[in-house]
Design a protein that fits this description.
alpha/beta; Rossmann fold; globular; binds nicotinamide-adenine-dinucleotide
């Protein structure tokens, strides 16, 4: 039987830990609760759902959040001004720009204009670079941190194991590869990164002890592509014909019984990603708050 890597359960536990820390280290010291800012540009349906769930997560643990919702045609100059205000606002501990943003905006320029000490998504080049430097004071991108924490909290041994990561995006695949392979207490995995130019993907997946997949193609990874006992982490979130049904990147039925573990969709990596954003915001409030 394939066991589930239950992200809901782990996230609930971590939420409780964060909540206790807020009380102990902030509220009991008569300081204000951590405050997350969210910038949303345009009307992308999925982005609105993600943003709403981030706001709900903040409420659940007693964090403050502020949403700045901007018109899809907003000028880049105006966004940079808003970011500059947030960078200098002592009442905001950290903030994010919900990605992807509209095509007319220069994503790199916008992300680079965020103060790295408030960059709770961990996408600023300074924070991104620090992933490989094992700097525990910086922010790790929430999904990558969520994946590695999901494995760690389920006592999965990754040390010396062969991990195949399918997808090399800045949001998921690339930072996850750095966290899995770095020399750390929970790390030291041997990582192969596959992407859309990889030839004979099954060759790699059949030799993997752990597979982490983030391609955005429903049911992409099949049972015939994996070896017995492999651990599967499904990052994909695919909306089927705008229905309420979400599908992952793994064909659950065909891997069931072959894999030893799988993270379900929904209820696997998604809740872990959301709770890691809270963890990063608490980190900003504890270490970098503008006095
Ligand atoms: P992306 O489009 O930026 O990257 C997709 C990656 O898949 C690329 O690196 C591409 O090379 C690779 N790819 C595409 N086709 C491939 C193929 N045939 N073989 C091998 N590799 C292939 O996407 P992303 O932002 O990384 O998101 C991927 C998926 O993860 C989406 O479904 C997204 O919704 C989901 N996601 C989930 C969470 C979460 O919290 N669960 C967070 C972020 C993204």
């Amino acid at each position: 039987m394939t066991k589930l890597l239950n992200g809901n359960q782990v996230a609930m536990k971590i939420r409780k830990e964060i909540s206790n820390e807020i009380v102990k280290k902030i509220v009991n010291k008569k300081q204000r609760v951590p405050h997350l800012g969210i910038i949303l540009v345009g009307e992308n349906h999925s982005s609105r759902i993600y943003v709403n769930s981030k706001i709900q997560e903040c409420k659940k643990i007693g964090m403050q959040s502020t949403l700045i919702h901007l018109h899809k045609n907003i000028e880049e100059k105006k966004i940079l001004e808003i970011i500059n205000n947030m960078n200098n606002n002592p009442m905001i501990d950290g903030f994010i720009i919900q990605l992807p943003i509209e095509k007319h905006l220069n994503q790199e320029k916008i992300i680079s204009s965020i103060n790295p000490k408030k960059d709770v998504d961990g996408f600023h080049p300074e924070n991104f670079g620090k992933i490989s430097l094992k700097n525990t004071k910086s922010f790790f991108p929430a999904t990558a941190l969520g994946i590695i924490t999901l494995l760690e909290r389920n006592n999965i041994n990754i040390h010396g194991k062969h991990t195949v990561i399918i997808g090399r995006s800045r949001i998921v695949g690339l930072p996850t590869s750095l966290l899995m392979s770095r020399k750390a207490t929970f790390g030291n995995s041997t990582v192969t990164i596959a992407h859309s130019y990889t030839k004979d993907l099954s060759f790699y997946t059949k030799h993997a002890d752990i597979i982490i997949i983030a391609v955005g193609i429903p049911n992409f990874l099949k049972g015939k592509m994996i070896k017995k006992g492999v651990i599967l982490v499904d990052v994909g979130i695919n909306n089927i014909h705008n229905s309420k049904k979400l599908l992952g990147d793994i064909d659950f039925d065909s891997v069931n019984g072959i894999a030893s573990y799988i993270s379900p969709v929904p209820g696997g990596v998604g809740p872990m990603t959301r709770v890691m954003l809270l963890k990063n915001t608490l980190h900003a409030a504890l270490h970098y708050r503008i006095k």
